[in-house]
Specification:
The complex is a heterotrimer of chains A (about 850), B (about 290) and C (about 325). With about 850 residues, chain A is of the alpha/beta class.
Chain lengths: ~850, ~290, ~325
Amino acid sequence: MHDPTLIAIQQITKFYGGVTALGAVSFEIAKGEVHALCGENGAGKSTLNKILSGSLLPDSGEITVENRPLPMGSVQACQDRGISIVHQESTAFLHLNAIDNIFVGRELTAPGWGFFRKLSLPFARNEQGGGVGWGFFLDRRQMERKTRELMLRLGESLPIDVPLLNLTTAQRQMVSIARALARDCRLLIMDEPTSSLSAKESAALFRIVRQLRSEGVSILWVTHRLDEVFELADRVTVLRDGKYVGTRSIGELDRAELIRMMVGREMATITARESNPAEIALTVKGLSGPAFQDVNLTVRAGEIVALAGLVGAGRSELARAIAGIDSYDAGTIEAEGRAISYVPEDRQHQGLALPMSIRENLTLSVLPRIAPRHLLIRARENQVAQQYMQELDIRADSTARPVESLSGGNQQKVLLGKWLATDPQILILDEPTRGIDVGAKAEIHRHIRALADRGVAILLISSEMPEVLDLADRIIVLREGQVAGELSRSEATQEKLLALSLPDESAEQKAVQSKEPIVDRLARQREIGVGALVALTLIVVSLVNPRFLSIENLRDLLINAAPIAIAACGMTLVILAREIDISIGSLMGLSAAIMGIIASPTRMGGSVPLSIALALATGLSIGLLNGALVAVGRVPSIIVTLGMLTILRGGTDLLMRGQWITDIPPGLRVLGTGSVLGVPISLWTAAICLICTGWLLARTALGRRIVALGSNPQAAVYAGISPTRIRLFVFACSGLLTAIATLVSVTRLSTIESGIGVGFELLVVTCVVVGGTSIRGGQGSVLGSFFGTLLLGSVATMLIFLRLGEMSTYWERAIQGAFILAAVMMDNLARRRAKS
Amino acid sequence: MLLVLLMIVAWRVDPAFVSWEAQSLLASHLWETAIMAVPMTLVILIGGIDLSVGAILAVSAVALGLAFQHGLPPYAAAILSVIIGAFLGLANGWLITGLRAQPLIITLATLAAYRGIAEGISLAKPNSGFPATFLAFGSSSFAAIAFVVLAGTAAFILAKTPTGRAIYVMGHNETVARFSRLPVDRIKLILYGSSGAAAGLAGAIMVARRNTAKADLGAGIELDVITAVVLGGVSINGGKGGIFGLVLGLFLVHETREFVSWRWQKDEVVLIVIGLLLILSVLLQRSKTEDG
Amino acid sequence: MKRCCALILLIALIGCGPKSEDKASSDGGKKIVIALLPKKKGVPYFTSCDKGAEEAAKELGDVELIYDGPTDGSPEKAASMIEQWTLKKVDVIAVSPNDASVVGPAMKAARAKGIHVITWDADAARDTREMMVNQGTAKEIGYKLVDVMAQDLGGDGASGDVAIVTAAITAPNQTEWIKYMKERLPNYPGLKLVDVKASNEDQKLAFTVTQDLMKAYPNIKGIFAISSTAFPGAAEAIKQSGMSGKVMVTGLSTPNDMRQAVKDGTVKSVVLWKTEDLGYLTVMVAHALAKGDLTPEATTFHAGRLGDRKIEGDNVLLGDLLVFTKDNIDNYKF
């Protein structure tokens, strides 16, 4: 090429154990070229990608960007030098919208607030602590404007303020590209970018890639699809078994030559199969479900019928309904007693238990067969495993090897074998060759044909047109959940297929636009649900006893809820980051004890400010300790905080020495009993904590990163977020806020005893969860937690106001439990409605 | 290994602690926790958790007491309490599978609800005066046998049956299990049901041992159970671990607790040591796997 | 590195064992070992009992006193401790049972091994112990609480709503007291019991509940706060609502813990006994039993500085219940 070299890869070597993953690989990528990287699975492409993008440290070798060496093993440094990667597996934050996805880890911030910025810097800094400019508050307007610019540049019109959860795979990928561009990307690594895209979406992606090239961006295009190489690339580099085979210009290369470079031998050309379909094996009549309507189709024994169409046209959903995995609304499926097997599209998430052995995976679908009378018989298990290992030529030294150690192609074979073992008469294959190399693909194709020859009726779902045209006897095209047409092998061409698959442009636009407000509304509805429950309770109780609604009582309700709400702020942060902190009850006891012992004239007689400071310091340091054990020690948070729960309680008991503290100085009691401008201090504190936490989450970069981490920890690392720092931060917050809660709650009472805070953790966790924060992280809000606190905090008071007498005391806890269940169910229903 | 080390130290400090007599007497408090820990292990193996076992224990115990008071023979009442336990466990399972909700949330809710039911139906009053023949049911030999049988069954199920295989698969990846047409929901129902049934059995044993049926029985015992399971090397995220580890974990917690209490006579210290043990043992496991 | 740190910590932990061993075994000898078990360790009431017990142990000279109990009040743990003491062959175990039915079997087993078992503070079934050191029965306490409340509210003609704030609703001692309180209340026809609420040993909950009770029942005149954590919580709620002197609150507590509330007028009367004397007497009785100085026929018992104490049946009586008021509370420092 004429363009100067952008990146030079020199003698990069990487060993995994004793295996050479990359052996002294060197090549160059020019400025503004599309450089394809090809090779079979296990050739070392992924390893090279990881090294280039900074997530893996090579054992030797060097990479230079414009003749300056690139620091190795740092995602941050690589991004700073303009290298970004768009991953094969989606590394998006599904709970965040496009704007946040683009800027997370590198947020644009408004100037000012220097103090806060410095304060939060230790936690917010990126993994390598690089000098990333970043203020405190997000500059949301600026980010939104930039996002629109980027989308304009990419020619995309996806909704940018909707969680990615509600976008298509292709749209999510666009967001990933935009993210790379936002970081002034000069080399964009795209790892199997079209593997989950439909033909139309791929075409759109090609257009964008060409455009980027014309803007001077280099693209490293990693793919198994040779068509793409010839359509798009300027040059291609081939790796084989971790070694560099060669780099060629596309012009001097043909398909056969490329395959020879990759495989190292000639591939046998495939001859078309003589199909001789027999009787009808499967009849589907008028089948309707959430994603498809009124589908009619038949498959004969020995026939391969392809189900073509765009991703999202309802193919997988239809297949799952036919296989009996999903339910459907109407229609009939007749298979006349034939066994139907469905081989799912996503082998990592749907198909295989990766940490388990080949043997265990292969026999998973036929457990009854290897376990007559419900006992696993090892001999039969081995026999089944051996049989399919051989039949499908799965390359591994033993059936005991975990599946995750196999290459993608071999994994796919295990997947196929797993369902072949069920001896199906009807086999549904969903994207059977996604992301595997040419050699493995040919083998799988051979197996599919052999199966059909043996009389198995096959329904094949594939987004790859050549595969469909190659294999299928008949092609049924699905469009927006309906059968758009049927083509026989002889009449099918790529053009016809595409024409049938493409939906009306206008309809698609409309669908996207009408989606937006609904999603928005539902997102808000989660809090509204709990809020409504609170309001309803208030109304019902006040009808029975109007005094319940008196200002005085409402004020007391709020004051009582204040400490819970304060601690709930911290807990919300922790749970958002996908952790949990159940040590806060004991921590409350400990910081109360320390505060009391220092301030009490009969114990140490220290000054009030000192006691407050030390109580806060206790909270903060225990929080940090929790955080350190979780983040650095990698102990699951539930275990750390469960242990801390008992340790701190024991420590508190030792400190208190069996005495209570009844002489809390008035200066300290003011915190709990005093008021400012007629509003109690505890309410001020709670309000400040709620607002600050709410702001932190909504407006600051740090908050965005917490949600991002909880949403997708893996992706967070790629975005340059340091999970360690974020975890430290959320636990520190939880500790500190608990100490603050202690300050306002304990000083309201006259006595500090060792049992303070027992059971507090369960109450707070329950409030947060009832408030709609997902225990899986990434979703939730402070407002919801606050409503949850109000709801649970008012149950006891409510029962007293209903004046039911002694009887209600015995049922109090049952009623509380019923409330929690009701809230969980309401939340669940709301979410389900959001889905459909 | 830790267990052996502990016993050696304990022996050096005071040989009386390690005597058979001492051990068998001290173990009598262990069995209820142990019995509930077996199904809890399976529940945690599939990536779930059951926080409501202590509350189920209370409901079953109270039901036993009330049934006895109304003239049911105590052994029939004990069977009733197991059935009620199983029923409440199934209710957990049903809520979890039906709502597709997080087990942590559901059992947190039922923890409160069941305890409330126990308090409500008993009006928080104890029931006692069981005949001596029934109290034999609470002897540690019966409980120990029950535990051994349960643990043996669970170990067998995990190692030798398709259900055991399915349990591990569900722990690794529930979707895979669903796509493999494994009866995911049924297994969940059964496991939460058996967790409830075991709590019911433990409740009956506890009533027999204490000669009292009361609504506050087993309060907080769920944390002991979970601690034992986790210390036994069962991954809290599911998929990894087994019954053998659980047995070790159970005895490690138990022996540590008894030994520290024996040696220092301070309940506060026991709390601290147990907490440290929990964190350190997992930390140790972690660093071991990282080194290797 | 991490692994090393953890290992070192662990070894350090275990290493503590043998080191402190020498100290403990050196003062073995022929001492009489008395194990004193409180319902709940770490509360001032029992801590001050312990103080009295230690005083007695020192006075007697040949006593080794062990004071331990569950910090969370779990009777299960208490039973486990009794079993350990049985194995260690202590001479006397003095139990304050939080739940007599739970610790009962363990006490029986200890007796079967020839260990003297007595109860103090609260009683258990007769066949589980030899004697009881009795400072007041549930009946006495229940009656006294009601009497004191009535007196605070104006004697026999007292009228108004009253409510009880108890510990957990399952707490056995409180349940007993409530039974006798309900038995006594009809003596004062003007008093109407409107509600019994749990505070779950949580001062803050007691505070909230009291506050709510006052608002929900405008005619409320008295609160019985009958757990040691409920009492200060309830008193504080009354004080902060500005109802000091209008709504009465009473309960059991050490004078130290309620001194301020009594002085500022929120609490008129506090019921209790001399806790240090209770601990003192318990150790004295235990010592005498072990020495064989106390026979079942005795009707009086000479207890060191306390002088002669009456024995009724198998109960050694401490004496009358005390009522602390503004006027006398400063005479008591415990």
